[in-house]
Every structure is written in C-alpha cells, then in structure tokens.
C-alpha cells in the first residue's frame, strides 16, 4: 500500500469535489463552468421566482385592487340631463348638470350644479323654470350624529387597506417558509456531494491498492487470497458510491424547486458547481424572542383585531339616531324668465332630517357578534404567541445540541483519521494486517460523513430558528 494514502483520503474528506463538465443550462445562464453555486444565489432565485412567493405577491396586488375599488366610494360624480317637449301644449326645454363630491370626515357630500330652461312648463313642473341665463346652485349634506365619525364608505376603505397589509404579511410569511426550505435543500445537496467525494476517494484507495497487491502476489510477497479480500472491499465501496450518487441526484432534483432560471423554470444544479465545503451556519439571534412583533402571522392577527375593532365602531354607529343637516344656496342669473319674479334674488335653504329605529336590534346583535369575534381573535393570538415562544425555545435547545454534536463529530473525525494514518504506517512496516487497515480507513470515512451530517443538522436548526425569530437578514429577505 502507498505510504500516506490514508492522509490523502483525509484531505479529500473535507469536500474537494472533482470538476465535471458544465451543462448547457449553465451556459444558458451565463455561469462560468465550475463556478461554485452559493447559498445567496439560491436564496435570491427562490425569493424572485418561487411560485408560492409569486402567488402571494399576486394576492397583494389583488388586495391593492380592492383597496382602489373602495376608494371609489369617494369619487366625484358628474350627472347631466336634458329634456325637450316636441309636441303638446307646453314647449318647455330643460338641461341641468350636477357635480357631487363626498365628504370624507362628515359622512355627507358637497354638490354644485347649473340648470337652464326655456319655454313653458305645467304648474306641477314649476321648479324647472329658470331665468334666461340659468340657475347656479351649491349645497352640502352633513351627518351630525350617525355616520359623522364612521360610515360604510370609510369603513370599507379602512378595511381594504388592512386587507393589503394582511396580504403583505402573508407574502412575507410565505417567503420565510420558502427561504427556510431553500436553505435546507441547498445544504442537503452540498452534503450529498461531499459525501459522494468521501466514498469515491475511499473507493480509489482500494482500487489503487489492488494494483499494488497484484504485483506483490506475482512476486510471492503476498498470498493470493488478499486480492479476493480487497475485491470484496472494492465492491462494498462501489455500493456506497452508487448510493451516494443516487442521493446527490435526488438532492439536486429537490434543489431545482428553489434554483430557477430567468424564466422561473426549475434548474437542476450541475455537479461541477458543488462548493468545496458547507457554508457557514446562519448566525443565531442574540435574543430570538426580541423580534416577536415582526412575525408575519402575529401581525396578521393584530391587523384582524384592528379590523374587527373598526367594525365594532361601525356597529355602534348604527345605534345612534340619524340627524342630517342640509344647506343649499341658489341664484338665478340674467333677465327674468317665464317663471316670473319668484326666481329673482338669492335663495337660501337649511333643513334637517331625523331618523331613529326604536328597537335597534340589528345594531345590538352586530355589536354582540363583533365583540365576541374580537375576544376570539385575541385568544387565538395568545395561543399563537405562546406556541411561537415554545417553538423558539425548543429550537434554541436544538441549536445548542447540534453545536455540541458537531464539535463531538469533529473530534471523532480527528481521532479516526489519526488512527487510520497510524494503522497505515504499521501496515507498511509489516506490523499490522490488511483487515485493520480497512477498518481504520472506513471508520475515518464514516466519521467524516457523520461530521458532515452533524454540520447539516446544525445549519438546518439555525435556519429554523432564524425563521421562527423572523430574522429576515439571515433568510436573504432584506
């Protein structure tokens, strides 16, 4: 056996992936052949092209469209009409135009208009007469009690704005989940590639040793059974390589759901893009509970509480009597028309209207419903917050445990490689046997795989904690 072969294996366990040919997909993306795929590249791709994220963004635009529709309740309205008698005793002609603008803060409206008539009208249409140059009119309708502070229009607009915020929180919640899964898929692919490298190097050692054994058997320095034993090792290690290749292909397929081309189509990364080592784990937040208010799911609940609170104000508004004030000023212009002196001068009118349902059971029933709804939402928020805190504490425990396991796995790997190197030297000096050398080599390889698995579990645990703590920077969402 070559002296130092085990040390060569130990170096390659660190994850130096063999270069492979770049795919046509890489060339189409403008990626130089063999350029390592980074986690930041995957997170950027999933943030921009993941269908779940795009669906959530579409729902935000849908909510924004509904908000614009709600604003339409305050649109200025222009109305025009004209009428002419073609036959009959009366020959009156009439045209009028009105502009109405809703008032946002008083539940009423402002209006202004102009009308012009000519000819004669029957007595029951006396209000259509104007002076020769027409009549100008302005007025206002104000709500003094019910609808003064809130009404259906203002509630609809506020509720639509809250719906936009709720949709945006849902988009962020979706993005956090996608990025968390993308981190896991990327690191699983990297681990699969590094594991394959370990097993391939382990196989190469056995294959190279077989050539040396054949020469030694021919010279009579080794028994021929040694070739059979090493062939058995080669077959076992080829099986490990085949399984690792399958796992790498499956990991690349899973990663393609997050790594997408410019058109959003899934793109399986080429093996030539495997990095030399796992990326650093996501930094652990100093206080994972400190940013609970930024959790999108809690924000959604808070927004729904505010929505229901506004609905309660609208329900209480329905208990109030309606007292509306109307004021109007009109002025006919020009020489007197067929209507006579009654159209001369400035006309000012002020009036009120009062309405009060006696039982008001509709409003009282709605108040009871909305009050109960607010209480239910608050209880749901309490439960959700407690579950989040519990999950964060559990993940923090998991992070600490995986850090310890990773340290232990690294120490075990160091010991295993030391033992493998020592056994190789003893075998070269004739002080050991082939069985022990194989055991030490495979133990070192297994320790390297466990080290990779421990590092992967730590990365996943930290990503889960970052997602639970809504650490957007760690998830590539800032």
How would you portray this structure in words?
The protein is an alpha+beta fold. It has nine helices and six strands; from the N terminus they run ααααββββαααββαα. It has helices spanning 5-13, 24-29, 39-49, 51-71, 152-218, 225-255, 296-317, 361-428, 434-468; strands at residues 77-84, 93-102, 109-118, 135-143, 322-332, 346-355. A six-stranded antiparallel β-sheet has the order 1-2-3-4-5-6, with no helix packed on it. β2 and β3 (109-118) form a beta hairpin. α1 runs antiparallel to α5. The longest helix has 68 residues, at 361-428. The chain is elongated.
Residue-averaged pLDDT, rounded?
86
- The strand order across the widest sheet is 1-2-3-4-5-6
Instruction: Report the structural category.
Output: alpha+beta
Helix content: 55-70%
> Using DSSP, what is the number of strands?
6
Backbone CA Rg? 40 Å
Measure the end-to-end span.
54 Å
Annotation field: number of helices: 9
Low-confidence stretches: 1-28
Tell me the strand percentage band: 5-15%
Which series of helices and strands comes N to C? HHHHEEEEHHHEEHH
Q: Biggest sheet, in brief?
A: 6 strands, antiparallel
Q: How would the global form be characterised?
A: elongated
Overview features:
12% strand, 478 residues, 6 strands, 9 helices, six-stranded antiparallel beta sheet, disordered N terminus, alpha+beta, single chain
